[in-house]
Amino acid sequence: MVNNKAVSGGLEWRVRVADGSSSAVLVPESGIFQRIWQGIVGLVLGIIRKVRNFFVKAWDVGVDDPRKVMHCLKVGVALTVVSLFYYMRPLYEGVGGTAMWAVLTVVVIFEYTVGATLCKSLNRATGTFLAGALAVGVHWVASQSGERFEPIIIRSSVFILATSATFSRFIPVVKARFDYGAMIFILTFSLVAISGYRVDNLFDLAQERLSTIVIGGSMCLLISMLICPIWAGQDLHFLVARNMEKLATSLDGCVGEYFKDSEDALEIDEESRKNFQGYKCVLNSKASEEALANFARWEPGHGRFSFRHPWKQYLKIGASLRSCAYCIEALNGCINSEILAPEFIKEHLSGVSMQLTSHSSTVLKELAHITKTMRRTSTLDFAIEDMKNAVQDLHDALKSIPSQLITSQLQVDEEALLQEKKTTDPITQPTSIPLIEVLPTYYCSFING
Amino acid sequence: MVNNKAVSGGLEWRVRVADGSSSAVLVPESGIFQRIWQGIVGLVLGIIRKVRNFFVKAWDVGVDDPRKVMHCLKVGVALTVVSLFYYMRPLYEGVGGTAMWAVLTVVVIFEYTVGATLCKSLNRATGTFLAGALAVGVHWVASQSGERFEPIIIRSSVFILATSATFSRFIPVVKARFDYGAMIFILTFSLVAISGYRVDNLFDLAQERLSTIVIGGSMCLLISMLICPIWAGQDLHFLVARNMEKLATSLDGCVGEYFKDSEDALEIDEESRKNFQGYKCVLNSKASEEALANFARWEPGHGRFSFRHPWKQYLKIGASLRSCAYCIEALNGCINSEILAPEFIKEHLSGVSMQLTSHSSTVLKELAHITKTMRRTSTLDFAIEDMKNAVQDLHDALKSIPSQLITSQLQVDEEALLQEKKTTDPITQPTSIPLIEVLPTYYCSFING
């Protein structure tokens, strides 16, 4: 029932169906091996594509902020230096073979900014010292109370202290500043207290651990502060200034887009659209601002920032900027809305609104400039005065809307009477008003606040 | 020149000034010791107050979420169990004295949610395994290349791998999921590669470290999953539902507050004000939502959530909810604004606006209920239909504003003519309009999106 013959170098399988009425040619679907091969090639190509994308992304990260590359090199240097404790016999014997802890410390506490590194190293040193002292004390008490009670006392102390220290990590104050210290406290206490059961010279263990941590920590701090230091405070400072600039650009773009002639509306290029979406970064900047402010308070004085620089004020400015960004988000909603204000109101308000926007964004840009240079100029006062005048102009323009409406309504009524046909209502959707009205309120509160 | 006499049981110091014209009484300023004593008492009282506040806060944290207390107990139990490796000789000898790593693993990877614990333990195990294998390989190569090149090869491999692994932590994909794994990779590689210079049985070291990590990790996972598990996925699910409810309450409160009679305005109690500020939590929920979604994807199926539950969708819902929250923030700005809409427009729109708000918040509450119960009901469709009708009603009400304006403007003009005095313009500030207009746009986009 089945016959096969060579066809053009391959095999053709022909099946005659039982009733003999027809026969079907079974074309091998390009061969099992070929399919497997194609699958493998596809897989490999997919992996290559993914790996390439990964490296492209990595390259972008490096090009975007070369300081990150510098940080990685610093980590490498710190590890290489600390590993000298292994390679040089006198150093190795000096720390009693616990050089491992120095390596561990470097890997764990070397963070991107100086503040974060300082925060972690101080937390680690303090946590280790407190826990070590406490564990040695508990161990002494336990060893005095006989062989039977010793493990019970140690184990219950570990349980109680670990439980309460873990709980303390949920309390906001501790979580913000001493989270890592609390973890290290639990770690060291457990290690020292439990090891005490097996190790005789417990005091030496605790002391060696502390000294290697101090060596590793000071190595990190030196490298982090002396070679191209990255200060959290400075980063926060410029982040806030950059956010002001982004808001100014977004504001200009957003209002400009709204009052643009409808014919031009389709011609917005991707570049400018991307530019005026900058306020979205501001919307989500809370977490990074708080982290930076938290680290900045640990940093010593640097550049134009003293030790007790009022970092908390940056958070307040950040909150004000976010309020502005919420406002721009609402304005943006008006642009994308299907409901639009009638043309004559738009025309009536276009000039004053653009004027106000331009003055507001000048104020923001001036604020950004002042923040960056940390020098107050008189230009800001003039800009604010101009902005206030623009607000007044807008109010005047808004006041004159009712008469405009009456004129337009009367026109419509006349047309309706004359032409006796359905008229379109000129003020179906007065949505455009928020666009202009919300601005002065927010900007004034921003300037006054 | 100086005489003293007893005055009412104390001493009075009298100084005669050189010219003899007058004498001044030196009253001891309540005594130096007394002042020091008062200072000490003040300090102690201050410390006691701070400590009491700290414990009050801690108590609140515990009462607010008893699962946190449970988590702390679980950590305590895990540590106690793992410390058995020290107390039982066969166990201690089984892991070759490296029981320390098990304790360390438990302290470091036991996190609040199952997802976070799983993420950390898998990261730790994988990082340790990869780095251990690589380090043993590098060490073998180094040992083959003679005593002179051995430290050079090892040190440069540590430098290169530490630098590149640190860099990989900046790449968003790695940062979100494998940050901890990358750190552990650097840690283990450095430790094993560098120790190799001093330790002979390197393979044993790597293997012991891995096995203790596996013991510690599986202990954490068992306790975390079996005793009162806290699932990141479930938390995310209820967080999103709770945010919907908060938005509904805020919306009701905000619009209700706006349209309240001005006489009642002063009588807002703190409780209701606090209630309708709930949307502020939604504004800042991005970071916690992303963290929870990130951990949830590591979790196995639990409750009504399968392993591949679409956790990313929650982030989209969260983004929509935040858009609504931005909008409520803008509405809230209108309430606090000094510029208010004229009374007659407020009255004209009050009914329809309240209607729309009530329907919108019903929809939100219904959505929250559906999310919580994971059961679709037909009530939602009716609620959405009602909301759409309310939007239409509002549009109709807005359409009729121009004629209202004309009437009111004519009245004003007449009054001005009759009384010949300065009139207040009835439509100085049409700010109330955004309050009602922005709502339907956002809610419709929320429902459709």
From TrEMBL, chains A, B:
Organism from which the protein derives: Aquilegia coerulea
Membrane-related topology note: Multi-pass membrane protein
Keyword Membrane belongs to the record: yes
Location, primary (coarse class): membrane
Protein name, per record: Aluminum-activated malate transporter
Keywords in alphabetical order: Ion channel, Ion transport, Membrane, Transmembrane, Transmembrane helix, Transport
Keyword Cytoplasm: no
Family, per entry: Belongs to the aromatic acid exporter (TC 2.A.85) family.
Location of the protein in the cell: Membrane
One Pfam family from the record: ALMT
GO process terms (BP): malate transport; monoatomic ion transmembrane transport
Residue ranges of the TM segments: 32-48, 69-88, 94-114, 121-140, 152-171, 178-198, 210-232
One cellular component term from this protein's GO annotations in UniProt: membrane
